[in-house]
Design a protein that fits this description.
The structure holds two protein chains of two kinds. Chain A is 72% helix and 6% strand. Chain A has helices at 2-21, 23-43, 46-80, 82-116, 118-121, 123-152, 172-175, 179-207, 212-248, 250-257, 291-297, 319-348, 356-365, 367-384, 405-436; strands at residues 157-159, 165-167, 269-276, 281-288, 387-389, 393-394. Chain A is globular and about 65 Å long. Chain B is built from twelve helices and two strands; from the N terminus they run H-H-H-H-H-H-H-H-H-H-H-E-E-H. A two-stranded antiparallel sheet of chain B has the order 1-2. The chains are: A mainly alpha, B mainly alpha. Bound molecules: CIS-heme D hydroxychlorin gamma-spirolactone and protoporphyrin IX containing FE (2 copies). One protoporphyrin IX containing FE binds at residues 9, 12-13, 16-17, 20, 81, 144-145, 147-148, 151, 374, 377-378, 381-382, 385, 388, 395 of chain A. Chain A: Pfam families: Cyt_bd_oxida_I.
Chain lengths: 443, 354
């Protein structure tokens, strides 16, 4: 049983992490492409249209990767988490089926048209199809987050005698207090990813003195979107999520913040420190007193519960991973705001394009939003442990009863090999597209 | 309510096999018939433009199955664990084959991805046929050994094959001679379907040759169909019970026959494509009808077969979903209509503005 669940979790974690590398760019980039296209229609400047088409090429490669890695995710609910599917299918089947019905149809039908149909349809319709692709991808994020929100904070259900969870209030799935903050935060985070990618390509063109006109446009647009989304990610959406965690998953919150003991008179916020699970304390700690209490409750000396208050069976199992993931996400978020604010300031003073050091930083910054997004999800998913459905269904009770660990290990290895190949091909193709650069209209 | 969802899901999955079926068939023809680069490119494009929106029907069908018949979804997906994961991998190779061939202009690069597309399409068609064969044959539900269930009654685990490749009632494997026959029928049907699609959508230079290929494959299909009906008798002592009890179900085999007749006697490419679609519809629905209301027969006497009634979810869950599925299906149909309108005509004649 123990090794069965270990490989099941490893496989899910690996495949979802790989899948999520792509949708975060899809969702954010579709917004930026619509923006370029719209600017083109408004100003009739060809550069905007070329930019839209250039990013469409990258988008298309990225989208394909999202689709082919997404289908294994859906199958895996049945293959690796059969008991979970059987017990909760009535509820999360709704949101997953709605995702397929409402968003994937929309997105995939219009994507082909958006990529191939500019001549067939004319500019206005082309913008419209682009917008529909954007709508489809955000709707997909919405439904998948509704699914996840129910696992984090189950609502509107009852439990039947045979153990199945069944829906009693359909609308509750969408008014789940966990959903809106998570959705907004997640979408803003995906805009962060895409704007950093756009800015990074811009910086690359400027530094390599290729396609400089486009480089400036990409940089400007990336910084504009990057600054706004980095701010929105932290406040109000990140803060809002944190308040939800304190309220609904207090044990997870204590572990995220690395609070071992409940302190009288206000909790400090930990900036740096390594959890020591043997002595139950943080090593090498740098902390600012009372801030955490204020951030969480807007009261300087309110108590925040430490891990000692919870039974061991209620605490997440991997506390250091949870703690580091959370601190990496928040730390990176702070750095993003700093870098983007500085870049925006220099842009405004018209000094940015010639200020090479910052261009280098921006060029190499693009992997970090990916890391922040992935670690953010690790916070959510590790914090949910030891439950699959918070408070109701333990992870160990959700796996497929008939699939042996040998089989899971075999398929896990297969996925690792296959995804390695996919990753290499993806980099090759995107690299090629960036190298070829945006093309001015030739006719 | 169960019947409503059963029908909806059957429709969605059948549409998937009609639409993505022509992509698989196109891949099979591509693998064996396309020789010149110009044909290879345009035939790959005839699948490449559409595979993604076609595959969504599978994603939607899977989601709906999960929602309406969670116990069935859980049982079948974990029971057929290995073949399903293999299908996933093949789908990935099919997709990257199509997407990557045009990215670099080296013959070697193109031929790798052409093979990837062709071989995985062929194997996918085979596997989907085998899957259908498994569903009508049934499995050892509960993993019964000497009258004792190893798992809960609705779970099972099938090896890829058993020692004799035979559809034994006690230890069936995924692949046996019976399911392989169904698999081969699927390959032949989809190859015909794909050939029709190529004739419909492209001006490739093998179009004339495909005409004879379609004719010959249709003859093979007739022979295989008759053969499969004979072996069907060996496996199920009362195979036509359902059709005898509910004579209305006969329409489904009739659809199949009409499709076959159409393959021989219609003239236009459009009608021929319609005919191969009818063969697919008829084949799937007849198989499902022959076991209805079962959706996975049990091959032992200890555990009951899975039916649409004992694997379905609650009334409430199924009825709220009716509201949104109606909207969803209508929207899906509108999108498909718009897409087909805008991409009507032959692929080679289209101007994408590139
Ligand atoms: C660019 C990526 C990014 C950045 C910079 C941040 N986040 Fe985040 N965060 C995510 C990307 C993300 C995410 C991957 O999108 C998550 C995972 C689940 C979700 O809905 O969003 C998330 C979840 C998430 C959660 C929920 C954890 C749970 O569900 O248990 C909290 C409390 C925060 N974030 C808080 C913050 C705060 C206070 C930030 C301050 C700067 C912050 N995040 C920056
Ligand atoms: C929003 C939709 C998502 C759903 C419905 C979902 C669902 C699940 C399920 C069913 C498991 C396995 C059971 C478990 O271990 O608890 C799991 C585990 C996991 N997921 Fe998610 N997930 C989602 C998004 C993500 C994303 C985007 C990531 C990362 C990028 C992620 C990272 C993980 C990790 C790391 C685990 C393993 C946790 C552990 O076993 O300790 N998840 N998730
Ligand atoms: C367990 C979790 C997940 C499952 C089961 C899942 C399932 C899928 C599937 C089946 C596809 C392919 C759809 C198609 O054929 O067009 C897909 C693509 C996609 N997924 Fe996921 N997904 C999961 C996690 C996520 C998360 C966390 C997000 C973001 C919030 C997300 C956003 C998307 C988007 C936007 C696409 C469209 C393709 C793309 O953008 O690249 N998915 N997903």
């Amino acid at each position: 049983m123990e090794d069965m669940i270990f490989y099941d979790r490893l496989q899910f974690a690996f495949t979802i992490t790989f899948h999520y590398l792509f949708p975060q760019l899809t969702m954010g980039l579709s917004l930026i492409i619509v923006y370029f296209k719209w600017q083109y229609l408004r100003t009739k400047t060809e550069t905007y249209n070329d930019a839209a088409k250039f990013f469409m090429k990258i988008f298309a490669i990225n989208f394909t990767m999202g689709v082919i890695t997404g289908i294994p995710m859906e199958f895996q609910f049945g293959t690796n988490w059969a008991k979970f599917s059987e017990l909760t299918g009535n509820i999360i089947g709704q949101t997953l089926a709605m995702e397929g019905t409402f968003s994937f149809f929309l997105e995939s039908s219009f994507l082909a048209l958006f990529i191939f149909g500019e001549k067939l349809m004319g500019q206005k319709l082309h913008l419209l199809t682009g917008f529909l692709v954007f709508l489809g991808s955000w709707a997909s994020g919405y439904f998948i987050l509704a699914t996840n929100a129910w696992m984090q904070h189950p609502v509107g259900y009852e439990i039947l005698a045979n153990g199945q969870f069944v829906l009693t209030h359909f609308t509750a799935l969408f008014s789940n207090p966990w959903l809106l903050p998570a959705f907004l935060h997640n979408q803003m985070a995906s805009v962060v990813t895409s704007s950093f990618v756009v800015a990074s390509i811009g910086a690359f063109y400027l530094l390599s003195q290729k396609n400089e006109e486009y480089g400036k446009l990409f940089l400007k647009t990336g910084i504009l979107f990057g600054l706004v989304s980095s701010l929105l990610v932290a406040f109000p959406t990140g803060d809002w999520n944190a308040k939800n965690v304190v309220k609904y998953q207090p044990a997870a919150f204590a572990a995220m913040e690395g609070i071992f003991h409940t302190e009288d008179g206000g909790a400090e916020i930990v900036l740096i420190g390594q959890p020591n699970m043997v002595e139950k304390k943080l090593d090498n700690k740098i902390a600012v007193p009372n801030i955490l209490s204020f951030l969480t409750y807007q009261e300087w000396d309110k108590q925040v519960k430490g891990m000692e208050e919870f039974d061991k069976s209620e605490l997440p199992q991997n506390i250091p991973a949870l703690y580091y993931s959370y601190h990496m996400m928040v730390g990176l978020g702070t750095i993003f705001i700093g870098v983007m604010a500085l870049a925006a300031f220099l842009l405004w003073r018209k000094k940015l394009y010639s200020f090479a050091p910052l261009l280098w930083v921006i060029m190499f910054l693009f992997p970090f939003p990916y890391i922040a997004n992935i670690t953010g999800w690790y916070v959510a998913e590790l914090g949910r442990q030891p439950y699959l459905v918070y408070g109701l269904l333990r992870t160990i009770d959700g796996i497929s009863p008939t699939v042996s660990s040998g089989n899971t290990l075999f398929t896990l290895l297969g996925f690792v090999g296959l995804y390695l190949l996919l990753g290499l091909l993806f980099l090759l193709l995107v690299g090629k597209a960036i190298y070829a650069g945006p093309k001015p209209q030739t006719h | 309510m169960e019947i409503f969802w059963y029908i909806i899901i059957a429709i969605v999955l059948t549409v998937f096999f009609i639409l993505d079926g022509y992509d698989f068939g196109t891949g099979i023809i591509h693998l064996f018939m396309a020789k010149e680069e110009k044909d290879k490119a345009v035939i790959a494009k005839a699948a490449g433009l559409f595979w993604d929106s076609n595959e969504v029907w599978l994603v939607a069908g899977g989601g709906l199955l999960f929602m309406a018949f969670p116990t069935f979804y859980a049982s079948v997906f974990s029971g057929f664990y290995l073949p399903l994961i293999l299908v996933l991998w093949l789908m990935i190779f099919r997709a990257i084959g199509l997407e990557l061939r045009g990215q670099f202009d080296y013959p070697m690069w193109k031929s790798i991805w052409d093979k990837s597309f062709g071989v995985s399409s062929l194997l996918l068609a085979l596997f989907f046929g085998i899957a259908l064969g498994n569903v009508v044959r049934g499995v050892n539900l509960g993993g019964v050994e000497n009258d004792i269930s190893a798992y809960e009654a609705h779970y099972f685990f099938l090896p890829l094959w058993n020692a004799h490749f035979s559809p034994e009632r006690t230890h069936p494997g995924v692949i046996d001679w019976f399911t392989v026959i169904i698999g081969v029928i699927a390959v032949v049907t989809l190859a015909i379907h794909g050939a029709n699609w190529i004739r419909l959508k492209t001006n490739s230079s093998i179009n004339e040759k495909l005409k004879t290929v379609i004719f010959r494959l249709s003859l093979v299909l007739v022979a295989l169909t008759i053969f499969s009906l004979i072996v069907w008798h060996v496996i199920h002592p009362q195979p036509f019970g359902n059709f005898a009890d509910k004579p209305l179900l006969i329409v489904f085999p009739l659809i199949y026959l009409a499709g076959i007749a159409g393959l021989f006697f219609t003239k236009s490419d459009r009608m021929k494509f319609g005919s191969s679609s009818l063969v697919i519809v008829g084949g799937i629905t007849s198989s499902l009808a022959s076991i209805f209301p079962m959706i996975l027969p049990s091959t032992n006497d200890v555990n009951e077969s899975l039916t649409i009634y004992n694997t379905s979810t609650t009334e409430y869950g199924m009825s709220v979903a009716v509201n949104w599925i109606i909207v969803g299906v209508l929207l899906g149909a509108v999108y498909m209509f718009i897409q087909k309108r805008l991409t009507a005509g032959k692929i080679d004649d289209m101007d994408y503005g590139h």
